[in-house]
Design brief:
Number of strands: 32
Number of helices: 0
Helix content: under 10%
Largest sheet: 18 strands, parallel
Shape: globular
Length: 333
């Protein structure tokens, strides 16, 4: 397998269908071109379709990862794994463009999984069709050292995720716990997510601080910053429009954050909706600007404290119970 030998190669797949019974690793410095190719992976255990080392680019192709058996984690049975969660391993200078992806037969699989201190990652031009079982089309998630977060956590940074097209994401039996998220960011910083279109999902975007926040990151500051979602449009959301949570669950400590949601459109289920669009849990330093929020029960839900949160020039339409009850720290103008 030329992809599993030494790196610094240029590899081009011919048009056609390629079948893999195990995952592959793209070695450092390799550029892959797969326009017109269909790659079908069958994976077992904790395997994934494609793992990458430093300085790798992949362009084109349709990649399907189908779970045969096994899997206990979010990095199992994904199409691309960029960095590792369990050992804090990260990679740098990765570019994945113009791909069509599917991760099948695994509840809460993630098509692209980014973890560890991975940095300078560009994901541009991803198409993902319909799924009854997906966790997130793209999940960027903090990692832990040797499986023990108290020994150190590692945080993806300098991520650019753009031009993502998603079909219909549901949680259809037997995958009733599937999250159905388009883009999920957990414990990352310096992230830009832009130009995402979704026909239907449970939640288009989510940002969470992560179980431990930045307590064990070794950073001088535990304040996360520079996360932007812009031009995200979901034509039907069945759970929330944006889920934002800045509380580390173990231990339960609030962490300030700098987050922007700009020029987005979140459409609920209209008359049948029982959900809030924007869910803010211990959120701080957050701007929601020039967004359309339509067809929900309420526009905003704030189950706990909020600090320096501004809704600026947003349009609230067809809300069954109104915008929501403002609390101290949240301004709607």
């Amino acid at each position: 397998d030329i992809l599993d030998t030494s790196g610094n190669k240029s590899v081009q797949f011919a048009a056609g269908t390629f079948t893999f019974t195990t995952g592959i690793t793209i070695r450092a410095g390799t550029q892959v071109k797969a326009h017109g190719a269909i790659l079908n992976f069958s994976t077992t255990g904790e395997d994934q379709a494609i793992s990458v080392e430093d300085n790798v680019s992949w362009a084109g192709g349709s990649i399907t990862c189908t779970r045969v058996s096994g899997g206990t984690s979010g990095e199992a049975h994904c199409c691309f794994r960029i960095g590792h969660y369990s050992d804090g391993f990260g990679v740098k200078n990765i570019r994945i463009i113009d791909v069509t992806l599917a991760a099948e037969n695994y509840e809460n699989a993630n098509a692209i999984f980014i973890s560890g201190p991975s940095s300078n990652i560009v994901i541009d031009g991803v198409t993902y069709g319909d799924s009854p079982s997906i966790g997130a089309v793209i999940l960027a998630h903090w990692g832990s050292g040797d499986g023990d977060p108290t020994a150190g956590t590692f945080h993806p940074n300098n991520l650019k995720i753009s031009n993502i097209k998603v079909g219909t994401l549901t949680n259809t039996a037997p995958f009733t716990n599937a999250l159905g998220v388009a883009v999920s960011i957990s414990g990352c910083y310096a992230v830009n997510v832009s130009n995402v279109s979704i026909l239907q999902c449970r939640t288009p975007i989510e940002f969470v601080i992560g179980d431990y926040g930045f307590i064990y990151s070794g950073f001088a500051s535990q304040t996360i910053g520079g996360v932007v979602f812009e031009n995200v449009v979901s034509l039907l959301c069945t759970q929330t429009g944006a889920f934002i949570q800045n509380i580390a669950t173990i231990p339960a400590i609030e962490h300030p954050a700098a987050l922007k949601i700009v020029d987005c459109c979140f459409y609920g289920e209209f008359a049948s909706s029982t959900s809030p669009c924007i869910y803010l849990d211990k959120v701080s330093n957050t701007l929601i600007d020039n967004c359309i929020i339509q067809g929900w029960d309420t526009g905003v839900a704030t189950p706990s404290t909020a600090t320096n949160v501004l809704f600026n020039h947003c349009v609230f339409l067809d809300l069954i119970s109104g915008i929501g009850t403002p609390i101290a720290g949240v301004t709607v103008q």
